[in-house]
Each structure stands twice: as C-alpha cells, then as structure tokens.
Amino acid sequence: MTDISFLLRRTGLGLLGSALLASSALAAPGGDATPGDTSLQTRLSSLLAMPYANGLAGAAQAPRIAWVERRAGVRNIMVSDHGQAPRRLTHYTRDDGTDLWGLVLTPDGRSLAYVEGGDPEYPNDAPPNAGQATFAGKETVHLIGPSGHDTVMGEGHSPAFSPDGTFLAFSRGGTLMIARTGAMPAAAFTTPGAITGLRWSPDGRHIAVEVDRGSHGVIALWDAGAKASSLTFIPPALSNDRQPVFSPDGKSVAFFRTQDPILGTDPQKGRFWSIHVHDLASGAEHTVWTAPAGKGSRFAAPEGSVPYWAADGRLLFPWEGSGWMRICALPMTGQGAPDCLTPDGAEVSAYQLSQDGKTLLYTSNSGDLDQWRAWSRPVAGNGAAVALTPGNDEISTLVTAGADIAVMATSVTQTAHPVVLENGHALSPVTPALPEGIAFVTPQDVRFHSADGLDLHGQLFTPPDDTARRHPALVFVHGGPERQMLPAFNAMGYYSNAYLMNQTLASQGYVVLSVNYRSGSGYGEAFRNAPETGRAGASEYRDVQAAAAYLQARDDVDTHRIGIWGGSWGGYLTGLALARNSDVFAAGVDFHGVHDMTEPDHPGLSPQQNRDAHEQEWRSSPIADIGHWRAPVLLVHGDDDRNVEFEQSTLLARMLTAQGVPYEDHVFPGERHAFLRTQDWLQGYMWMTRFFAQTLLAPGKP
C-alpha cells in the first residue's frame, strides 16, 4: 500500500514449497456461521459498501476535480465541477480487485487519463490477480476524451499530459511512450531500469524522466522539440536523483539527490541529501543546498513531495531540521539558512503552490497533533497562516483546480470524500453517511506514558452501553510503521477499514484502544526515528505494553480478557505481544505480519558487526520468544503479498505447530498486502470477529 508498510525482501528462506498452513482446532468447520453472524455480516457489509474516495486530481486551468470512488468494492472514476454533484466517467461493475489510479486531467479538464490494473506501489511488477481470473489482467493506461469515449492507450503507468493538453506521455518499464491526443502512442526511448515518474517542461518541449536503476537513480531529459529527438542525462552521482521539476521558464530543472545511511550510522553525523539545479542550455549542474548533519540530515518528505519554484524565485521544499516536517524556502544562491514558512512543533503532510506561485497551500496538525486541517499563507513576507478548514474534519490530500482548492476530508461518521473550499465555505460533491440503523461512538483522545517515559497518544472506542460490567478489551496496532491513527475515518483505504472495524468491535462489547506507538508519524522526527525500534531492539513494543497497562487500569475492562490485533507492522507487534506476554494478551489477530526480522547481510558492516546486527534482529523478532507463546492467534495473509513475504506467515505457522500453540489460519490466493477486493476484507474481518468471540467472548472464558 502506499501504505509505506514494512518492505521485507528476504532471500533463501526456502519455505515457498512448504505445505500451506496447518489446520487449526479453532477454525469453524467449513466456515460454519456462529450465532449473531448474520447481523454482524450485514453490518460489516453495509459499512464496507460505503463510498470511499481516493486519488484526487485537479485541472490546472479549470474548476474540475476527479477521483476514484470505491462503492461496495466497485471502483469508478467521478468528476465534479466547482464542487457540484458528480458524474461518473467509467462503468465498472465488479469487485474483482482491479485498481484504478494515476488520475491526471488536461489543463482545461476536458480529458482525463488513468491507469487500470497493476499495483500503484509496485507499478513495474507483474499485475495482481486478486480476483483469480483465468488469465491475469494487465496494467493499462486509458484516455477519456471530451466525448466520454474510453480508449486503452496501451500497457504502462504514470500518465502525464503536456501543458497544452495535446500530448500524453506514460511509462512502460524503461520505455517512455508518447501519444498525440486522439492517436495511439509510440515509443520515444528505452533505457535500462524502470521509469518511476515523469514531468513536462512548461513549454512542452522537454520531459524529465525519473529512472530507478536499483543501486541508484538517474534523471533523463527527453527533447521532444528537436528535429532529431534526443535523450540526455543530468550528470548522475552515486546516489538517487529524484523528483525533477522544471523552472517556470523551462530552462532549469531542480531535483533532490539522496543517499540511504548505512545501518548503525550516527544520526548526528553525515549529510545525506541535497537540492540541485541543472541548466538545460549549458548542461551545468550545481548544488543549491545540502542538509546539515543532525536533525533533518536524512531525507524524509510527505509522499509525492517535489521542490516548487515560487513566484519570488525561491525553491520550496520539505525539511525537518527543527525536528518537525516543515515547508521551507531557499534562495537560488543557496546563501543563508532556509526560511521555514510553516509553524514549528507541527507536521505537514501535503503541500503545493497556488497557480500564480505566490501562496503556499498545505495540510498540517498545527495546534493539535491529532487533528489535520488545510492552511494557506503567502510565500513572500511574514503573512500569517490562515486555516482553510474549521477543524471538525480530518483533512488529507490537497490539490488545486483552477482557482479552486480541493481536499479529501473524513469525520467520525464519514469516509474519505472530496471537498471544494471557497471563501470559507465547503462544497461537497459527495457526503457519505452511515448506513441506516448503524451508529458510531465518538472515539476519545487519550494520553498515557510508556515505562521509559514517552508521551503517547491513542483513541479509545468504548461500548455504547452504560452498564458497569467489565468488558473484554483489544489493543489495535497500526502498520507502516509511519502511520498515525486519528479519532475519525482514515484517508487511507486500509485504515479506513480498520477504523470501521474498531467501531464494530466496540458495538460488539469490546473496549478498543488504538495506540500511536513510537516510529509512527505525526509527532515529530524524534518520535518517528526513536532509538532501537523494529529490528534494532523493538522499543516500540514498550508502547504496546503501556496500552495494555492503560486498559488494565480501567474499571470497565476485564483484565483477563485483553486481546490485540493489527496488520503488517501491527501484525509484527501482535506477534511480539503474544510471544512475550501471553500472560497479558489472551488472544491476537495477525494480518500479514513480520515474524522474523533477521536480514542475511548488511553491506558496509564488518563480519563481526553483521553478526551483532543479526543477533539484535533475532532478539527483536516474535519467533525469538516462541517458547513463551501460549495465547491462540489468527493468521491471515494474501499469498501475492509484495510488502511482507508470505513465507513470514508459513514460518510462524510451522513454529507454532512445533510448540503446540493453537492457531487459526486463512490464505487469500492472489491477494496483495492491502487486500484489493472488499469481499476479502469482509471475509477477513468476519474470521476475526468469530475468532475473538471464541477466545474472548465465549461463555466460560476467564
């Protein structure tokens, strides 16, 4: 998922040929329903069928926005003009796991390109087949013109229109494809590696192409206006060159140059990224600025971030030199420290410039770290930031559409939906509502501390009844780990589903605590890069223990019936909880978790350093404490997962079998990490609710 889920590419495990997970005594024979299943399935089906929007795009010169709407698992593309009632451009009818993404509009908004199929996180991998079709689908670029006709332009991804809208470019592996609107595309060039992004110059003559070559990244420049079209490269380095952006006059390209530090590098040493500008006419390239050692020396930025050329001639870019992700401005001379435009002590999650380059638009949790709003401020001068949204919704993606500003918003009862902002008013093309007869509790923001003194944030979901009896309880741990859960629907589909599941669990009588543990986002660089997390020591598990202690101290919680659930990195923490503290956690549900954190080798480390790192990774793994694991667990995994290898679950199943630990297991053939089919989310959540009913709610349980 753009889930920046933990990417674990291991080799040599040798488990792929093993038999699938062993049968479990906990599994209901043949999937037989248990009492209450019918009403529960109806509730979950209704909630998962709610319209959910993502992929927001805006036209440069027209008040038109477009987005992907998933409704009852079926994805279609919608457009709206100036926030008015939307119309549907596509006519898909099946929940078959085929994604729609990469939306882009021509400047006038009259044509739209998109990608059908494939995986946005791994666009150059073989397309998924979650729907188990006889033959897997392809990843194809589509063009919908003013007539509404939908034309397949060919295999590829990352479509981009020229500034005048007359050409469409897209990538196919290492090949750049270009088509004049209304004609079929032709290959412009092919280069080793995979094209991961492209951007046109303002005059439409050049295209800057980002190419991933595995060990490094380069930027190619295609001159489409020359008599003999030519390909050149910005002089590369032993680094990754990324996110090229042309200057307003089209004569220069700004880009980031980054390196990944070697394991164990002192965070106070090293300068790992810089901003560069390349002059197209002379071929000269110079360093504008290099991040100093210390805070912010390692490249980190909101997803999709690019440097922006402001109207006053400065470059805008994200930097967390103060310990918080802020947007800063830098003179082209590179002289002096960057002037940061957004407030300290708060994070920015999305940003861009207004069409005239004079106003910075961004989303931030300024004033309340658990609340995101849209803001604006002048680039030049000392103008104050102005909140564009009042604060009763959670705001994520932000785009411009002509003079309009559009955002994605969510609330306690509303899934992600587009909102157009105009003079302090919000125009909503779609206003999702809870299905009739379903009510949600309002999650409570709670604060508690870990044993080592870290201040932690969470959301508490309590059962709607007001009886004094003690309830079973659950800790929910998100994945990522660079994620932040909020007291509302999440803008990411994966966590939008998790939020409605936590609401459903509360309606079933559980007290649910969603914990934002260290290494997550939203609370500054020191929190995100806390020492000894993950394979370096699993220090974030202390925060899971703190969440359990918080629940144990509540009068409405039965301390003998506390469970835990999560996916990806949350599955990893679920595994740690059950392996280390089956005395605290009576049961757990682990979706596609990481169970063995060891890496075979770390380049740049000595043999002894590799042995020491391997030992630490082992001790940070759930399977290191498998001898203490007693609590039952449910394991669910898609066997085409590209984020966490499927072998992570087959390995754990074998070890649990050897220990005699009861477990239930389910596999989705062909599914990816973030399940692509809504029916698979429904099935997975039904398995989970039945499992917890058997282990935490069943009569006679302690």
Folded structure, characterized:
The protein starts with 36 loop residues before the first helix and ends in a 5-residue tail after the last helix. A hairpin with a 2-residue loop joins β10 (167-172) and β11 (175-180). The radius of gyration is 25 Å and the shape is globular. It is of the alpha+beta class and 702 residues long. The strands form 9 sheets. Strands 33-34-36-35-37-38-39-40 form an 8-stranded mixed beta sheet, with helices on both faces. The chain has a domain at 444-697: Alpha/Beta hydrolase fold, catalytic domain (Rossmann fold), CATH 3.40.50.1820. Keywords: Acetylation, Hydrolase, Protease, Serine protease, Signal.
Condensed summary:
With about 700 residues, this protein is of the alpha+beta class. The chain is built from eight helices and 40 strands. An eight-stranded mixed beta sheet has the order 33-34-36-35-37-38-39-40, sandwiched between helices.
Can you lay out the helices and strands and say which pair or pack?
Layout: H1 37-48, E1 52-58, E2 64-71, E3 74-81, E4 87-88, E5 100-105, E6 112-116, E7 140-144, E8 150-155, E9 157-161, E10 167-172, E11 175-180, E12 186-190, E13 194-200, E14 206-212, E15 217-223, E16 230-233, E17 240-246, E18 252-258, E19 273-279, E20 285-290, E21 308-309, E22 315-319, E23 326-330, E24 339-340, E25 348-353, E26 359-364, E27 373-378, E28 386-387, E29 394-401, E30 404-410, E31 417-422, E32 425-427, E33 444-449, E34 455-461, E35 471-477, H2 493-507, E36 511-516, H3 525-528, H4 541-552, E37 557-567, H5 569-580, E38 587-591, H6 607-619, E39 633-638, H7 647-659, E40 663-668, H8 678-697
